[in-house]
């Protein structure tokens, strides 16, 4: 099978009936960029910049952040890289910033983390913004913010980056040719505010790991709950379908970057509700691409619509039967 996947490397992820899916990878370390060539993926859809912070004993200096980002951009060549600004706190504790469990937060996943922390301690965000702008000088920069709960948080984060851009412009530094600003949708409240958010952003990326834990009030790291809440549950798929439809209405590209997309039945369902951009773990690119190339999307869509309207709780069995019957 692995050899089969290798043969798929240079074939595009297109469904049998002609929908081109953008298939990107999730990454976070310097060496992960090599996976782009190995998998033939379309780009890095989620670069988790906090990994550098997590593996470091002290706060990474701006210069070392910049070196990492530039190396990744260079390795990616013509392919886009979406940098997600630091998402620390929650389950990602740091020895040199007091966050998460270490400072006695009872619910660190819902605590002082990611953008919340970055907006309060904006020195961190300023340094990172400068590092990203410098690293992408002369090229396109894609930057997205994690754990946005309300649209104003996007504005505040973007303003920090823009301020750094103006500072560099004032010093006649080479700037990125273009900056695309994205928001992650991981907090359910933001889904209710899409009409306010979408006109401001260049792309939306749904983080289904956090989103589903908040939607079901079920800790993503608690093994006792792992089997109980299914990514293929009607509530999740309906919720995602609404986000995808609204984004398309506003003409804003929308993708899924949670681990859900790396599982073949889940990614099939995502395509069935209209998702055309996935960012997944590199090892999943082969299997997911094989699924896409064997899928007739036009046949799946009405079937999935019917299932979502049926009141059936167990879509996994139904979808898996359908996939088998249709050679997906
Ligand atoms: C997510 O929450 O789905 C996501 C992609 O971000 P992370 O897994 O890094 O929290
Ligand atoms: Mg997340």
In short:
Belongs to the PEP-utilizing enzyme family. 45% of the residues lie in helices and 12% in strands.
Layout of secondary structure:
Elements: H1 2-7, E1 22-27, H2 34-39, E2 44-48, H3 50-54, H4 62-76, E3 81-84, H5 114-120, H6 122-135, E4 140-145, H7 151-170, E5 178-185, H8 188-191, H9 194-197, E6 203-206, H10 208-215, H11 234-249, E7 254-256, H12 264-272, E8 277-280, H13 285-293, H14 297-310, H15 315-325
Parallel strand pairs: 1-2, 1-8, 2-3, 3-4, 4-5, 5-6, 6-7
Describe the structure.
The protein is α/β, with parallel strands linked by helices. It has 15 helices and 8 strands. The protein has helices at residues 2-7, 34-39, 50-54, 62-76, 114-120, 122-135, 151-170, 188-191, 194-197, 208-215, 234-249, 264-272, 285-293, 297-310, 315-325; strands at 22-27, 44-48, 81-84, 140-145, 178-185, 203-206, 254-256, 277-280. The longest helix is centred in the middle third of the chain and has 20 residues, at 151-170. It is globular, with a radius of gyration of 20 Å. The mean pLDDT is 94. It binds phosphoenolpyruvate and magnesium ion (MG). Residues 46, 48, 87, 186, 207-210, 257-258 line the site of phosphoenolpyruvate.
């Amino acid at each position: 099978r692995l050899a089969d996947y290798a043969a798929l490397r240079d074939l595009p992820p297109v469904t049998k009936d002609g929908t081109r899916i953008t298939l990107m990878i999730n990454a976070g370390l310097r060496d992960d960029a090599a996976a782009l060539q190995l998998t033939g993926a379309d780009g890095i859809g989620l670069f988790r910049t906090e990994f550098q912070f997590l593996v470091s004993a002290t706060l990474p200096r701006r210069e070392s952040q910049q070196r990492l980002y530039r190396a990744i951009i260079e390795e990616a060549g013509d392919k886009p890289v979406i940098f997600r600004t630091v998402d620390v706190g929650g389950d990602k504790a740091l020895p040199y910033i007091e966050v998460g469990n270490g400072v006695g937060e009872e619910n660190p996943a819902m605590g002082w983390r990611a953008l919340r922390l970055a907006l309060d301690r904006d020195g961190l965000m300023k340094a990172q913004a400068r590092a990203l702008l410098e690293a992408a000088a002369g090229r396109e920069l894609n930057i997205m913010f994690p754990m946005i709960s309300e649209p104003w948080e996007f504005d505040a984060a973007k303003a920090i980056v823009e301020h750094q851009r103006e500072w560099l412009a004032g010093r006649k530094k080479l700037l990125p040719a273009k900056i695309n600003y994205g928001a992650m949708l991981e907090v359910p409240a933001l889904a209710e505010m899409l009409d306010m958010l979408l006109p401001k952003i260049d792309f939306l990326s749904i983080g289904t790991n956090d989103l589903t834990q908040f939607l079901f009030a079920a800790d993503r790291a608690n093994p006792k709950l792992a089997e109980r809440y299914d990514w293929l549950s009607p509530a999740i798929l309906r919720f995602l379908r609404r986000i995808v439809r609204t984004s398309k209405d506003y003409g804003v590209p929308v993708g899924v970057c949670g681990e859900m997309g790396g599982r073949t039945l889940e990614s099939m369902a995502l395509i069935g509700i209209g998702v055309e951009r996935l960012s997944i773990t590199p090892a999943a690119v082969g299997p997911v691409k094989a699924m896409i190339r064997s899928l007739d999307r036009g046949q799946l869509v009405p079937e999935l619509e019917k299932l979502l309207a049926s009141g059936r709780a167990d879509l996994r069995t139904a979808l898996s039967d359908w996939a088998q019957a249709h050679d997906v």
